[in-house]
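Quick one:
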Amino acid sequence: MNIKHFLYTLLYICALLSCSHDDDDTQSEVKIRRTIIAYVCGDNNLSNSLQDDIMEMVKGAATLPTDCRLIVFTDFLNTTPYIYEIQNGQRTTVKKFSEEFYCTNPDSMLHAMQWIADNYPADEYALLMTGHGNGSIIKQDTVETIIARRYAYGLDTTGNKESGSYATWLNIPTFASVLSQLNDKNGAPLHFDYIFFDCCCMQTAEVAYELRNYTDYIVAAASEVPGKGAPYNKIVPILGVDKEIIGKEIIDNYIEGTQWGSYGGIAISAVKTSEMEPLMNATRKALKSIYTGDKLTLNRYRCIYYFRDEDTDKAPALHDLKNIMHINLDNAAYNEWLPFFTKAVVASYMPTGSAPWNTVFEGLDFNSFDITEENYGGISMIAPNIAYDNIEKRVTPMKSLNKTMFNYEWCNDIGWHELGW
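Output:
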């Protein structure tokens, strides 16, 4: 009996030690709350600047919350794409692609993002997109098509031309299609807490409305952004904060951490996507209230706008949504519309000073605008203009913005066709 009692006691002690060891292992493992996917399209003239951004991300990741992962897809000049994990101030290559390809090709983008989601599962996901951007303006797509569409993100200058994808830009509806095919760790549709576009002119009503089903918040600039991009040593540490405050946190750190010289900053804002449909309905109602039967051509005199180049035949485009509504609506209609805008645009920075923000767009002079709290919104909208049709009179594959805007859900749901367009 003594031997039997001894054996039972020994087994009991071993079991306790084993349970204690398992508990220690469980406690030592940090549960990953959020995977942050950074998609860096740098196979263009931003290559050197974006490589510097990677080094800033490494510095910033030293204080990124331990329950967050930063996984970075990169494509630069003269190299095949890579995927890095950046953690605790260290960068580790976790995947190197054997061949060059267009990172703006939707199939390639889907493959890269899904690989990250599969290998770095989490309870939450966030997305950072950096490279060139044109918001709702037409560019040539990576998908070979006969009819030009509207394009926004990328500029990948080298890829596998034998694949059948000959162009270098990715359009927003195609990007939305990519996001719609992503799955999380449970096989359910992957949804992002936020998307941060560190690209020019990406904060447009058309973009935010198109992506409303795939993310809760969009943080982006309506204007151009500096070629160097965000100060990631300051941005990365806060990418793990709650989605409700991420917009203000990114905006504050972006503005405070960037040397602007004589410029006052950039026109940057955060949009709550669940409020985009109510804002669309309010905008449709307001525009219909001033429609008289002919083409509704909105008054643009001294209205803030963010884009002007060959793609619009140098006619001003991407007008500030709040400003153009303020100019064209009477007081009663505007005051009825404004609360919907305020609920959608939850944070913004209004650049001020003698030179509000920098631009390379020919003929775009921000000093001519009356930039005030009353006039400025920090998000743009396509307002059709007969001048955009001039683009089709030249020898060019470009289509008028008056036509391509109907590829956006926002423009169709607003009812621009019903307003004479």
